[in-house]
Amino acid sequence: MLRLKRTYAITRGKVIFDYTSLYCETPEALLRSPLFEEVIRRFIRRHASKGSSIFAFLSYNLPWTSRDELPFEVVKLFRLLFSYTADEVASMHEQYRPILSDRENLYEFVEELYNYWRRFERFFYIEAPERSNLPRSTIHHAQFIKANEELKNLVLYVYRKISEHITGKNPRVYRQLPAGANMGMLLERIPWRCPDRYRRLLEVPFIRLTLMEPPLILYPEMNRRKGRFEEVHDIPDGVLDIDPSEWYCFPAKVGELNGFIYFHQDFISLGLSLSNLFEIADYEDIHNQRPDLILVFGIRGLSSAEEGVKTVFFDDRENDLMVGLIEHSPEVDYFGYFKKMTLTLHNIVMIKRGRLPLHGAMVCLKLKGGESANVILVGDSGAGKSETLEALRVLADEYICEMRVIFDDMGSLGLDATGRVVGYGTEIGAFVRLDDLQPGYAYEEIDRSIFMNPDKTNARLIIPVTRYHHVVKGYPVDFFLYANNYEQVDSEHPVIEFFHTPEEALEVFRHGARLAKGTTDEVGLVHTYFANPFGAPQRRDDHEVLASRYFELMFHQAVAVGQIRTRLGIEGYEQEGPKEAAKGLFEVMRRRTGF
Q: In 12, 187, 366, 423, which residue has its Cα 20 to 30 A from 590's Cα atom?
């Protein structure tokens, strides 16, 4: 079954369009495009439903006999106003004299329509032709990159030309606002070794290249994650009978694993934001290959009204595949569901392969004298991992010549060829709270950032922080610390405290205590097994065996295992706590490594 061809879709404040089908080389083509007419139709319908003065102005001054005709009259007027001044149009077309006599209101209508278009989250795609046996040309990449720039310039040109012909004068200030698409994707159909029960997914194209116009500000309906991911023992019949024309697949490199992340078009802004978090898989990782994990985000029929929204995963042992399923609902319109379900699947695969998954952050620090240390901070959401690393970054100018992030949220412990404990990452980016960053940092990195709900509690930023090469390399561990965000620092509770035995350390890590920071629906002092609700509790018996093994190895190899008191959960210490923790960590590293 072929993917149904459609030129555009408008859904939940998003416009998604096929640039090849809607390609507009000239202003005339733009003004005659079906998408332009549809945007005007929706704009008029919106103002009609509110009974606004804009609708009254249009309906009173334009010739029309039914509401359906009104958008076409507006389109015809715009086509004329692009080519001629308002005076020239009025002299040639008597029926438009009433509306052209009120230039001020007409100009305000144009401004409101332009702003209405820009308030949409706008996405375009181009489908690449099938590959031949010849080496792949990069011409499609060049065309793809050029497409949005041309569209942006065309929309701006048409808007300005019509405005000038209405007002009779040129603007004094030209603002080069992003008026084309916010994000774009180059799609390609690639065959992969798909088990029969997932055959409908074969018809969904893969995202091979993305484009964005940062800074990108998105407003998903939710700003926190609720509940837990539950394991099911089978996939309900029929839930994977999707309409492929409404779906896309982001092929992600999740650490060393290949993950196919399928998402419904209603969640396209979140799905494409994965570009700032995961490396896009190569063609060779997809073609005739079977992924390690699959996430299907936005399916219907997974749960009933009584059960609530389901976020579940399935261990398909028959096909050696981890599968995540997330219900289509406004309640999951939050990037954390994409990220955390993908990492839950990753963690269970890691446990199967003998690695210990970690909910934490790892950084490699090198001083100006050449000494270095690799640090892992373990903690659940809001424990202060990223914030402490950010505080270390601030110290870098004075003490540190290089600071390399290996992972910012999820990684794993493994062994290198010599048997030494090493850390591996999963993501090339970070999904961090704006409130907990050092003031000004988000604005320093604004040209690469995706902001989500910046006006709300738990506002977030998605930003690249490292390269894939470092994620999968495997770095020896020198310091392994639990991020304690709930205890004050005093004479009995220093900023950095080291454990003396594996059993003592395991007790603290296993307990997983933290003060909830509002990043989920939890409140107060809570406990999560190993500070990692993403796979560890679901495979607790296997995880216990691995944890004991790796902690014994770390103590045997003289890794410094302890806890760091970030105080991030204590009111008034949101900034100072991580800053003091970073200073304490630096002092301990200097003493232990001879910095």
A: 423
